[in-house]
Amino acid sequence: MKFHKSYANCRVRRYLLIFTALSLVLLPLSLIYLVWNEQLQKIKGYEINNETGLSLIPEYAIQSLSPEEMQEMSVRMEARLNRLKEKCSEFGLDVVGQDTWHTPNTWEFLVNKKYHIIWCNVFKAASSSWMFNFNVLAGYTPNYLLKTKKILLNLARERYPRVTLQELREAQNDSTTFIIARNPFERLLSAYRDKIVFALPYSFHDKLGRSIVRNYRKKPKLVSRAGNTKYPSFPEFVHWLLDQVKRGNYIDMHFVSATSFCTPCLIRFDMILKFESLAEDQLYLIEKTGLQRVIAPVWRNMGKGGRKTQELQQQFYSQLTKQEMLELYNYYQYDFDLFDYDIKEYLKYARADEEAGAAASGA
To answer: Which candidate, 87, 164, 331, 345, has a CA 20 to 30 Å from the CA of 182?
Structure first.
């Protein structure tokens, strides 16, 4: 019995000695790493913000606008907000109601209380770039965000819980709220190519695309424009989307109208950035919010396929008839009007309705 007790005591002492030895080795190594990491950041030109732990962009690398440019941007932003207010009133969108157009929607707002900035994330409107930025503001390092295989939206939601309307309005009292607008048809095509044409195998959108093919490929109006792909042609996709709208079904967040998604007539916005002038617009936002040393105006996920925007617009929208295009416009009309976009250029691309009808008859 004494032998067993003695043996047990020896084992305990042995484990304590091993633990102590490991501590003596690992603690200095940890301290060395922390000091080395901070020095490395300084060598690269970065400083560490002791309050937030974020790497600060060095002064020499900050991009900024001149005082004259800032004044011009201020006038631009005011004009956009004035138009928004006028159009909201004109269409009666500033009155609370029962449908999705008249119900404040806080679902996709990201509220950063530390830096007093709030963003309604309109997917396919520089969303990848600003999701990256908001993750940086949430404390993730840029290096981690560039290497991780995790979805940035999921990472963001771990630190940006969804808010109620009351919580959003309280946060807005000392914050800047912004939205990024994009031409609705350009945004839709970008979403179609990214989520349908280039869908990841076996993903939700890959399965959605195959479902659209099964249900729309043999329709008389579409058979001549179907192609021979596993994913739906653009006309097939548009017909599916219009059917979802007509039936009052849920519209995927990548395809839904920005007006319905962010309800800018019912929730106050302080700035409207535009995809087409984002280089200047985001510099203005970053400077007005005092974030010049925290986030940089970098664009990410600039599209797949390397094709020029105008060339792509013509290639895909020329596959639609004028009637199909007008039906599509009818759904996105508020996005066009509130954010000052025009459909005229697209109507030039449209096929004649008779041309599509004749092709269907011939098939």
So the answer is: 164
| pLDDT tens digits, one per residue of 291-305 | 999 998 876 655 544
Task: Determine the Cα–Cα distance for residues 361 and 276; give it in Å rounded to an integer.
Answer: 41
Q: In which residue are the tokens 């509130």 written?
A: 338
Per-residue pLDDT tens over the stretch 196-226: 999 999 999 999 999 999 999 999 999 999 8
The Cα–Cα gap between 45 and 57 comes to 8
Phi, psi of 7 (to 5 degrees): -65, -40
CA distances in angstroms from 154 to 120, 145, 147, listed in the order given: 16, 12, 15
Could you write out the three-class secondary structure of 139-204? CCCHHHHHHCCCCHHHHHHHHCCCCCHHHHHHHHCCCEEEEEECCHHHHHHHHHHHHHHCCCCCCH
Asked if residue 65 lies in contact with residue 73, where contact means CB atoms within 8 angstroms, the answer is: yes
Distance separating alpha carbons of residues 210 and 232, to the nearest angstrom: 7
Tell me the residue type at 42: K
Q: Where are the alpha helices (DSSP H) in the chain?
A: 2-43, 67-91, 127-137, 142-147, 152-159, 165-172, 184-191, 204-216, 234-247, 258-262, 278-288, 309-317, 322-338, 344-349, 353-362
The CB-side HSE value for 258 (13 A sphere, CA atoms) comes to 31
341-346: long-range contacts, CB 8 A cutoff, minimum separation 24: 341/183, 341/184, 343/185, 346/185, 346/313, 346/317
Give the pLDDT score at 15: 62
Distance CA 238, CA 192 (A): 9
- pLDDT at res. 27: 56
DSSP state of 276: G
Count of Cβ atoms closer than 10 Å to residue 33 Cβ = 10
Q: Two tokens at 127?
A: 């969303």
pTM of the model: 0.82
